[in-house]
């Protein structure tokens, strides 16, 4: 009669190796995230790698390669929901994208380990660590390069402030001046600024502009007696 703790079978030992591999490699990825005090740190990276490994290994044990393939598909889609939880939007800035991508890669490491491909899991781990560490100096170097506004894709807005009863004429004037300068308007909105003023904001269809040309447009608009203030702004694209 078998005891409550049967002797480990080759299959269970194989599962233990897969989980140990996922644990170790997930730890390597998580240490770097923890050191940089990211939202998802050491424990999260390890648990993601372990979970992916366990599910893929279970699929392998139950139905072989076909089962593992189906499990991997679910892991890939399911980890996206977890990654979305670490992405935060603060005003116009979005934080956590790199951490979410790292979690996604941690799941890939676990999936390789669960599929009995430990060498490939190591390759992915090395690539993830290289991306999060070795590329950092290059990113900092690129960020220090002065931006050529004429070559940067962005969303451009031109805004004028007028009295509420002048919003209609201001819309027409704004569209007329921008189109005359060669910048068609994609959308235009009126935003209230209290009882005595409104902002008329035009969004351009162009993704690149000449700053001097928009300066000239806003200067001409500012000279109009009904316009209290005119300005333009740019928001960098993704």
Automatic annotation (TrEMBL):
Stretches that traverse the bilayer: 12-31, 40-59, 71-88
GO cellular component terms, A-Z: plasma membrane
Entry coiled-coil feature ranges: none
Major location (coarse): membrane
Keyword Transmembrane helix assigned: yes
Domain MgtC/SapB/SrpB/YhiD N-terminal intervals: 19-140
KW Glycosyltransferase (keyword) present: no
Compartments, record wording: Cell inner membrane; Cell membrane
Similarity comment: Belongs to the MgtC/SapB family.
Protein name: Protein MgtC
């Amino acid at each position: 009669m078998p005891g409550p703790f049967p002797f480990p079978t080759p299959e269970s030992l194989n599962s233990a190796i897969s989980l140990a591999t996922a644990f170790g490699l997930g730890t390597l990825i998580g240490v770097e995230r923890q050191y940089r005090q990211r939202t998802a740190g050491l424990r999260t990276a390890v648990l993601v790698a372990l979970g992916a490994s366990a599910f893929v290994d279970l699929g392998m044990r139950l139905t072989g390669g076909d089962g593992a393939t189906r499990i991997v598909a679910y892991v890939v889609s399911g980890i996206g929901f977890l990654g979305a939880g670490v992405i935060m939007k603060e005003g116009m800035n979005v934080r956590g994208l790199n951490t979410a991508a790292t979690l996604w890669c941690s799941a890939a490491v676990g999936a390789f380990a669960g599929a009995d491909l430990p060498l490939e899991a190591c390759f992915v781990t090395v690539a993830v660590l290289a991306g999060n560490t070795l590329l950092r100096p290059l990113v900092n170097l690129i960020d220090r390069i002065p931006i050529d506004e004429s070559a940067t894709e962005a969303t451009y807005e031109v805004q004028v402030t007028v009295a509420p009863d002048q919003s209609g004429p201001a819309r027409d004037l704004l569209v007329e001046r921008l189109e005359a300068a060669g910048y068609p308007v994609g959308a235009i909105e009126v935003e209230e600024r209290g009882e005595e003023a409104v902002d008329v904001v035009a969004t351009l269809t162009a993704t690149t502009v000449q700053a001097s040309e928009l300066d000239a447009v806003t200067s001409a608009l500012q000279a109009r007696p009904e316009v209290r203030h005119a300005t333009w702004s740019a928001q960098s694209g993704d």
